[in-house]
């Protein structure tokens, strides 16, 4: 059975979708921007956006009873590949004990003019 989950400590979705869907022991998480959940505004720098997006991802994981170590796959979307090294430093602060597989894709634009977005799959 599929169960849609929305975390209170993550920003509200910017469209008609759930933060995540739990099916069996697998959690599929929607893309997270660097939106501050209290102000619903984007952080300014790409590294601040990456940090906030990863915190938002953590809130969604916690809501499902999971942690970063349960994440098996991430996909990162950035608007400028020149930011790759800087976001890697931020990313590496959240994924330390277990490194999930990952893709990084440069895109022309992200919702709300964001510069960083991450989606993930976790398995408990």
Automatic annotation (TrEMBL):
It comes from the Bacteria. InterPro entries: RidA, RutC-like_sf, YjgF/YER057c/UK114. Pfam families: Ribonuc_L-PSP. GO terms for cellular component: cytosol. One of its GO terms (molecular function) is deaminase activity. Signal peptide: none annotated. Coiled coil: none annotated. Belongs to the RutC family. This is Endoribonuclease L-PSP. It comes from Loigolactobacillus rennini DSM 20253.
